[in-house]
Amino acid sequence: MRKELQKGEPIVKEKLYYKDAYIQSFTSKILKQNEDANGTYVVLEETAFYPTGGGQPHDTGTLNDIEVTNVEEVDREIRHYITQQINGSDVNGQLNWKRRFDHMQQHTGQHILSAAFAEKFGILTNAFHLGRDTATIDLETPELPMETALGAEELANEIVFANRPITIRWIDEAEAKTLPLRKEPTVKENIRVVIVEDFDYNGCGGTHPNYTGEVGPIKILGWERHKGNIRLEFACGWRTLRIMHEKQTVLKDAVRLLNSKESDLPNKLEQILTSQKEMDKALRDANDKLLAYEANELLEKAASLPSGKLVAAVFTDRSMQDLAKLSVALTQDSEAIALLVAQTGDNIQCVCASGKAVEKNMNEALKSALPLIEGKGGGNPLSARGGGKAVVSAEAFLEKLIAGVSE
Question: How far is 219 from 355, CA to CA, in rounded Å?
């Protein structure tokens, strides 16, 4: 079914989300049903579905029990993208209220937090992003001391707990100049201003609750440098409670696993990390000694070549790092040639190395053998490494390497 607007018909009679942000269900008529690159969509006479814009994501819900997956304003049309066409012209719309109210909390919380940074510290916000789990603002400052962040967070929550009224006014350019707007309006008429009583005046096209108390607690989660500014992550309302619950669960698990008080966790973790570093170093030292011992054993069994002493060995599940360390230990002997091959699953890796007195070119020897395993690699005359597929056995590949240094 395809319905088109007649010439002169209004695109939408009323944006119900501006009339009342709390409307969760409504009835309307289809003005147009069509498809574009994003799928099947309908345009309604009036709608409570908010389209993506101003940093706020679109609403979701249903029209006649058909899922609305996206809402966008395109060519002055509010397009409701649906999973299948709608029969008839009358529709019953139902919003996903949990999603809408969450967006109202986060968006209004951003207004309050940005105003707190501006009011208390003169730090302005130049960008806002409302994500699925958290939201971010970009603050026009290269640094953000902890005490500044905590001061802004405290002021923002004071405004929330004061439960101040939030009102909407439509004004023109002349009236806009009489208000302490945080940013210059981008339009000259039909300017929509969101006002937090005696605190913030902000031009905005988003949806907001009637009182700051509905925003719920505002919590700063962290920040980082971003393009010369500070990108600050935060959450509001139900998101804050969910995140705090998740963090509390992690904290309780850490207390149980470490058998420690919450207040002692930092010291306990520092002790564990220090111990781990010491243990890692001890293991590396022990491994190096074992590799040196292994190298001496291999050198004792080395075969004699006109070009030097040949140490050729195949290993299973040996790391490239171990092969490289072993080759270094072996080639402390200036006449040694080390051809070390390791097979791990369907892959073969190898290191070819020589002492300084050896005239054979290890890079050439490696590259002459790599086609046998469809491999890649390289290096220099004294040391080269590579790998490929185990299309032949590791022993067969080693034989090819040996032939390359024996010629």
Answer: 62
The whole-angstrom distance between residue 208's C-alpha and the CA centroid of its chain comes to 27
- CB atoms near residue 321 (< 10 Å): 9
154-211, pLDDT tens digit by residue?
999 999 999 999 999 999 988 988 998 988 888 888 899 999 999 999 999 999 999 9
CB atoms within 10 A of CB 106: 27
Q: Map residue 138 onto helix, strand or coil.
A: strand
Is pLDDT of 138 > 80? yes
Token pair in block for residue 237: 């309302």
Q: Which residue is listed with tokens 């789990």?
A: 133
Structure tokens belonging to residue 338: 């080390």
Residue carrying structure tokens 């491999």: 375
The per-residue pLDDT for range 328-353, each reduced to its tens digit, is 999 999 999 999 999 999 999 999 99
Joined together, the tokens standing for residue 124 give: 């302005």
| CA dist., res. 352 & res. 339, Å (int) | 5
The structure tokens listed for 208 are 């907001």
Question: What is the rounded CA–CA span in Å between residue 60 and residue 72?
Answer: 11
Between these two residues, 86 and 10, which has the higher pLDDT value? 86
Q: Kindly state the tokens that stand for 34.
A: 């069509």
Rg (CA), the chain: 34
Q: Which two tokens stand for residue 67?
A: 């899922």
Listed residue (182, 185, 194, 203) closest to 117, CA to CA? 182
Burial class (CB in 10 A: 0-12, 13-18, 19+), 215: buried
d(CA 348, CA 390): 6
Using CA atoms, how far apart are residues 187 and 98, in angstroms rounded to an integer?
Answer: 31
Compute the distance between CA of residue 42 and CA of residue 20 in angstroms, rounded to an integer: 22
Whole-structure pTM over 0.85, yes or no? no
For residue 394, what are the CA distances in angstroms to 210, 290, 324, 373, 378? 73, 24, 17, 9, 18
Q: Which domains does the chain have, with CATH numbers?
A: 14-95 (2.40.30.130), 101-254 (3.30.980.10), 286-406 (3.10.310.40)
How many whole angstroms from its chain centre is CA 253?
25
Contact 218, 109 (CB under 8 A): yes
